[in-house]
Amino acid sequence: MDGIIQMLPAPLRRFSTYIDFAGQSKAEKIFQVIIVIASIIGFVVGYLLQQLWLTFAILGGGFVLANLIVLPCWPYFRKNPINWKPNPVDERPTPAAATKKEGASPNPKKDGKKHK
């Protein structure tokens, strides 16, 4: 996604492109409510006027409205930022340092011990 953002013109790159998890939940609920309300209104209007195209026009308008409200990354959807844990420093020993322990040979089979 960052590669796509970098291809945009400079004025568009300054907009934030993330929505936090709580914002995603809000966006989904808003989208579903708008679509259901538009469906009910479209059905009622289409039924009363006996025009099927009105049903689909109202549903399509609800879809467009829902997308205009939900798709942009409004600040309302970014109120709970994600606090990532800090990246731990890699403290694992290198393979060469791990094999040079005192009294340990690099190959356990050459220690002369037989494992059953």
Describe this structure in words.
The protein has 116 residues and is mainly alpha-helical. The chain is built from five helices and no strands. The relative contact order is 0.12. α3 packs antiparallel against α4. The chain has helices spanning 2-7, 10-13, 21-49, 52-70, 95-99. It has a domain at 19-81. The protein is elongated, with a radius of gyration of 30 Å. The model has no long low-confidence stretch (mean pLDDT 80). Helix content is 54%, strand content 0%. The chain crosses the membrane at residues 30-49, 55-77. Keywords: Endoplasmic reticulum, Membrane, Transmembrane, Transmembrane helix. One of its GO terms (biological process) is protein targeting to ER. It comes from Panagrolaimus superbus. Component of the signal peptidase complex (SPC) which catalyzes the cleavage of N-terminal signal sequences from nascent proteins as they are translocated into the lumen of the endoplasmic reticulum. Dispensable for SPC enzymatic activity.
